[in-house]
Amino acid sequence: MRTIRVKFVDFFPSWNLENNFLIRALRKNYQVELSDDPEYLFCSCFGDESLRYDCVKIFWTGEDLTPDFNLYDYGIAFDHLSFGDRYLRFPLFAIAGNAQRAVEARKAAAEQDLSGKEFCSFVVSNGNANPIREEMFHRLSDYRPVASGGRFLNNVGGPVENKLEFQSHYRFCLAFENDSSDGYTSEKILDAFRSGAIPIYWGNRQIDKDFNPNAFINCHAFDSLDQVVEYVKAIDNDPALYRKIMQEPIFKNDQIPYGFTSAALEDFLIHIIDQPLAQARRISAFSRKADYLTAALESGCIPPDASEHGLQSHA
Predict the structure, then answer these.
(1) In Å, how far from its chain's centre is CA 284?
(2) What single DSSP character describes residue 92?
(3) How far apart are the first and last CA of the chain?
(4) Which one, of 95, 92, 81, 84, lies nearest residue 23 by Cα?
(5) What are the angstrom distances between the C-alpha of 271 and each of 3, 117, 256, 260, 279?
(6) Strand bridging mode 170-176 / 198-202
C-alpha cells in the first residue's frame, strides 16, 4: 500500500488530525503519514496557513462557502457546480454514513405508535442566524408549544445532552439552517429524519434535489410562514396524513444518491492521489505566484510588486 504525506491546516480547533472522516477515507487505500512536508495539503476556511505551502491542495468546508479554485487544486463543499475533476459536492450530512442511518431510522419510526409523542422540537445554540428561524419558532409556538432544547430560546430547563434522543420524542422538528443558500444543506434535516420526526425545513432552496419532497415540509414551497403553519396544523390534526408522510422514503426512489456515500469521497480522493504528483496540480502557475504574494501580505512582508497583482490582505 502506497504511503502518502498529508497535512491538515486551517481547520477548526477541535479537528482531530488522527481521526477524521478525510483521513479515514484515505487510510482505506493508502498508508497515511502526517507530515510538515506534505504532498497533499487538506485545507479548510479557518485561517490562511494553506497559502504558505506549494503542493496539491484539497479544500473542504462544512460552512456555507464556495471553494476558491485559484487557491486550491480541488474542492469538497456544498454547491451544485461542475468543474471538471476538481470538485466534489459532499454535504456535511453525508459524513460517517449518516444517510444510511437516517434511512433506517425513518423506516423504523414510521412503524411506531405516535400517541406518546409530543408536538415539535427545536434545538439551536446559535442565536445570530437569519431571523426567520426565530420567527418560525414563535409562530408555531402560538399554535402549540415548541420544545426548545438548545441554548437559544431554551424552555426545557437547560440544553439537552443528546439532540437525537430529545428530538425522538416529538412528531415534528424545526430544521432551519443559519441562512438560506442554494446547495447548502447541513446536518439539520438529516438529524430530524434520524430522530423519527417530520422535518420542517428552511435554508437550501434546492433541497428537493437532495431529498424526497414528499417526506418533509419544505418552507420554500410556500408563499409565507403563515401557510407553513397552516399546513403543519393540518398534518398535526390528521393522523392518516401524518402517517402517509412518515412512510415516504427520505430519498427519491428510496435510493441514497452515490454522491452522499463514502464511496463518492473515496473515489474522488483516489482520482487525485493516483495521478503522478506533478500532474495532480490544477492551480495555474500564476495563481501559485498569487498564493505566495498573498501569504507575504498577510505576514507583513509585502513584496514591492504586490500591488501589480491587485492583492489585498484578509485582515
Answers:
(1) 28
(2) G
(3) 42
(4) 95
(5) 16, 47, 22, 17, 11
(6) parallel
Give the residue from 8, 82, 71 showing the smallest Cα distance to 290.
71
Tell whether 237 and 139 lie within a shared domain. Answer: yes
Choose among 274, 253, 256: nearest CA to 264.
256
Average pLDDT over residues 279-299: 72
Q: How far apart are alpha carbons 147 and 198 in whole angstroms?
A: 15
| pTM recorded for the entire structure | 0.85
Residues 25, 153 within the same domain? no
Indicate the DSSP class of residue 214. Answer: G
Among 27-41, 111-125, 254-268, which is the least confidently predicted range?
A: 111-125
CA-to-CA distance for 81 and 65, rounded, in angstroms?
A: 13
pLDDT of residue 309: 35
Contact between residue 208 and residue 189 where contact means Cβ atoms under 8 Å apart: no
The mean pLDDT of the chain is: 90
d(CA 63, CA 10): 13
- Measured torsion, CA atoms of residues 250, 207, 75, 42, in degrees rounded to the nearest 10: -60
Residues 118 and 50 in one domain: no
The mean pLDDT value for 185-194 works out to: 93
Place of cell 420567527: 135
CA proximity to 252, closest of 194, 294, 210, 303:
210
- Please state, in angstroms and rounded to a whole number, the distance separating the CA atoms of residues 99 and 106: 11
Same domain, 74 and 213: no
What cell was used for 220?
A: 420554500
Residue position matching grid coordinates 500500500: 1
Cα torsion 274, 276, 278, 281: sign: negative
Residue 229: pLDDT band (50, 70, 90) is very high
Sheet holding 74-77, edge to edge: 31-34, 3-9, 40-43, 56-60, 74-77, 87-89
Q: Is residue 293 part of a domain?
A: no
Domain that holds residue 154: 100-250
Output the DSSP codes for 235-256: HHT-HHHHHHHHTS-SSGGG--
Concatenated DSSP letters of 48-84? SGGGG--SEEEEE-SSS----TTT-SEEEES----BT
